[in-house]
TrEMBL record, chains A, B:
<dbReference type="Pfam" id="PF00440">
    <property type="entry name" value="TetR_N"/>
</dbReference>
<feature type="DNA-binding region" description="H-T-H motif">
    <location>
        <begin position="37"/>
        <end position="56"/>
    </location>
</feature>
<dbReference type="InterPro" id="IPR054129">
    <property type="entry name" value="DesT_TetR_C"/>
</dbReference>
<keyword id="KW-0238">DNA-binding</keyword>
<feature type="domain" description="HTH tetR-type">
    <location>
        <begin position="14"/>
        <end position="74"/>
    </location>
</feature>
<protein>
    <submittedName>
        <fullName>TetR family transcriptional regulator</fullName>
    </submittedName>
</protein>
<dbReference type="InterPro" id="IPR050692">
    <property type="entry name" value="HTH_transcr_repressor_FabR"/>
</dbReference>
<keyword id="KW-0805">Transcription regulation</keyword>
<keyword id="KW-0804">Transcription</keyword>
<dbReference type="InterPro" id="IPR009057">
    <property type="entry name" value="Homeodomain-like_sf"/>
</dbReference>
<dbReference type="GO" id="GO:0003677">
    <property type="term" value="F:DNA binding"/>
</dbReference>
<dbReference type="InterPro" id="IPR001647">
    <property type="entry name" value="HTH_TetR"/>
</dbReference>
<dbReference type="Pfam" id="PF21943">
    <property type="entry name" value="TetR_C_46"/>
</dbReference>
Amino acid sequence: MTEDELPPRRARKLATRQALLDGALRLLEQQSLTSLGLREVTREAGIAPAAFYRHFGDLGELGVALVEESFGSLRALIRDIRTPEADTEDVIRRSVDLVAAHVRAHRAHFCFLARERYGGVASVRAAIAGELDSFVRELADDLAAQPESEGWSAPELSVLARLYVNVLMLTAASMIEAGPDDPAAEQSILTEALMQLRMITVGRRYWTENR
Amino acid sequence: MTEDELPPRRARKLATRQALLDGALRLLEQQSLTSLGLREVTREAGIAPAAFYRHFGDLGELGVALVEESFGSLRALIRDIRTPEADTEDVIRRSVDLVAAHVRAHRAHFCFLARERYGGVASVRAAIAGELDSFVRELADDLAAQPESEGWSAPELSVLARLYVNVLMLTAASMIEAGPDDPAAEQSILTEALMQLRMITVGRRYWTENR
DNA sequence: GAGAAGAGCAAACAGTCGTTCACCGAGTGA
DNA sequence: TCACTCGGTGAACGACTGTTTGCTCTTCTC
């Protein structure tokens, strides 16, 4: 096994930086980024207020860092969803299951993304939009590689991909809003998402002959 | 023509209440409800901080009132969209146009709704969700009355209606994010929304034979 | 026209806020 | 080993916060 691989100096700095991110994320489950206080965050992280400036110049910077962290864990989910060959129904079903599992495992991250996607900090909104765009592009590429996409133009595939992504993001947001302790509500949200994805996919199948 | 119809006492009270709502809405274009300050709002409305309590016990109460006001203007839009008989393509096109016009006319209201739909104040989130639910129910009823809905169950119609509503709400949110002075971006958002609605509608047409 | 009601005000309350500053002490690199 | 870098500290700053209190002055009610 390898050693820590990091000089203790940098390691400690990264650790308290992470403490700041974790503390902020915890607080952001109940409020929005614009209402977050610098002292509040440092209190939650267990450091002095002034130490904040050693890591971020601004609470907005911390917000952007949180976006990167959130999408970092999302990328694993995306990689799991992207399986080139499989029955369409299976892909849909597995996508919904994976999103559900991921929301359960990273509730705070999704809560943050849902809240700040149209929140009050422009730089954070832009960061989220950019990450979602690259997600949409990846999905559009995957869709393009499938035989069902014969006769589809690139813009059409992009629009379809965004529709899929939006449904999944709204599903995640609904799960967050339902709370973690309501399996019945969660189940109905997931079956609804399943049906919406199926409807869209039926539309996709007959699109070229009805466009 | 009729007189003011209102005792001057109540009229004045309603006027300053409206000034509070207007001022808050103006501030909420750049921040979120949880970060809104009571003094900030009263300053914007031109009254003393203490006078706030004559109208609302709480900033959350003001938020709920803003939800009602926002959906009040939305209801006019919904009534316009609901036209029993028309070609499906026409309905889609007209819906997108109406949403676009309504966003342009009531930008601040949509900005508020997009931001607080998953924002930090639970009572406001609940109020928005409730209004959206009743919107979904109305649309589902309209859809049920159409001949294309033969063979559809009530839950299926509800799911479809929610999908339509979500697309329209996300379209509005995208328009807000693009800003009022970018006609090119606005046009591409609207054509994307149009295509998404068409794809869903194709799915609807072939749903019963592919479900 | 007298008295009650109530919308709005200024002032004061104890807190909290973001930011700056000099300073400490442990890790770093020669 | 010695100078140095630098993450973290505690104190202090003025500004701003939500809420309460007692008070005006207009409007309503009888």
